[in-house]
Amino acid sequence: MDDKLRDFVPGTVALVGAGPGDPDLLTVKAVRALSCATLVVHDGLVDDRILALAPANARRISVAKSRARHTLAQESINALLVAEALGGAMVVRLKGGDPFIFGRGGEEVEACRQAGIPVQVVPGISAAIGGAAEAMLPLTHRELSSAVSFVAGQCKGLTDQDWSGLAGKGRTLVIYMGVATADQIADKLIADGVSPDMPVAVLEKAGRPDARALRTLLTDLGGMIAREKVKSPALIVVGDVVLRSDADDRLAAFAKRVEGVK
């Protein structure tokens, strides 16, 4: 056996980052893991072209999650990985973006370790990194931002989360899973002292053929998402770096609406 394939053998689990969607953004190691899989347990948003890289006879199980519905609870996914590996499968747990960035990869690794199953993690290009690159949006910039933070916008007790200091001058804030709570997010940041005129971008379906990057002001974030009918998956980027991006400007529509109110 090729030494490079020895890690991907029956009875093991590999958590593999599928990146933001474009198969060209997979790592070489991710492709190698998929080529050895006998079972692929994948997120619902993983591109079909990536799934096609696994052998034709490999089983494929979707464990898609959405805000309102989960195909399997996380505990059941953990149990599935363990049971299949104990049964002799070479399991690839294929996750959008990177397994350790809001991917629950840490929980799955712990479950495998507790069961004595060899497990490894193959990192992927995160949605934030891939989406920002696609929109020519530098998350850090020598003149504009020396820090970047990642937060989840869809979580229990959102209003109780302490985001103070994460957004503002000289900083970039990237919010995952924030489309459904955009109005609350804007209110929360403004209440914490972020200017209502802070530029924001929404990166929709990064890495896919129908990707969009839209730009407006923080105070208009929820309104723009509603007007443009933005759908998940989408990222929200808050900070002056947004002005250096190729995002389509939606400030004119917002200004026209504000002028109408006056």
Automatic annotation (TrEMBL):
<feature type="domain" description="Tetrapyrrole methylase">
    <location>
        <begin position="12"/>
        <end position="221"/>
    </location>
</feature>
<protein>
    <recommendedName>
        <fullName>uroporphyrinogen-III C-methyltransferase</fullName>
        <ecNumber>2.1.1.107</ecNumber>
    </recommendedName>
</protein>
<keyword id="KW-0489">Methyltransferase</keyword>
<dbReference type="InterPro" id="IPR006366">
    <property type="entry name" value="CobA/CysG_C"/>
</dbReference>
<dbReference type="GO" id="GO:0004851">
    <property type="term" value="F:uroporphyrin-III C-methyltransferase activity"/>
</dbReference>
<dbReference type="GO" id="GO:0019354">
    <property type="term" value="P:siroheme biosynthetic process"/>
</dbReference>
<dbReference type="InterPro" id="IPR000878">
    <property type="entry name" value="4pyrrol_Mease"/>
</dbReference>
<dbReference type="Pfam" id="PF00590">
    <property type="entry name" value="TP_methylase"/>
</dbReference>
<dbReference type="GO" id="GO:0032259">
    <property type="term" value="P:methylation"/>
</dbReference>
<dbReference type="InterPro" id="IPR014776">
    <property type="entry name" value="4pyrrole_Mease_sub2"/>
</dbReference>
<keyword id="KW-0627">Porphyrin biosynthesis</keyword>
<comment type="pathway">
    <text>Porphyrin-containing compound metabolism; siroheme biosynthesis; precorrin-2 from uroporphyrinogen III: step 1/1.</text>
</comment>
<keyword id="KW-0949">S-adenosyl-L-methionine</keyword>
<dbReference type="InterPro" id="IPR003043">
    <property type="entry name" value="Uropor_MeTrfase_CS"/>
</dbReference>
<dbReference type="InterPro" id="IPR050161">
    <property type="entry name" value="Siro_Cobalamin_biosynth"/>
</dbReference>
<dbReference type="InterPro" id="IPR014777">
    <property type="entry name" value="4pyrrole_Mease_sub1"/>
</dbReference>
<dbReference type="InterPro" id="IPR035996">
    <property type="entry name" value="4pyrrol_Methylase_sf"/>
</dbReference>
<comment type="similarity">
    <text>Belongs to the precorrin methyltransferase family.</text>
</comment>
<keyword id="KW-0808">Transferase</keyword>
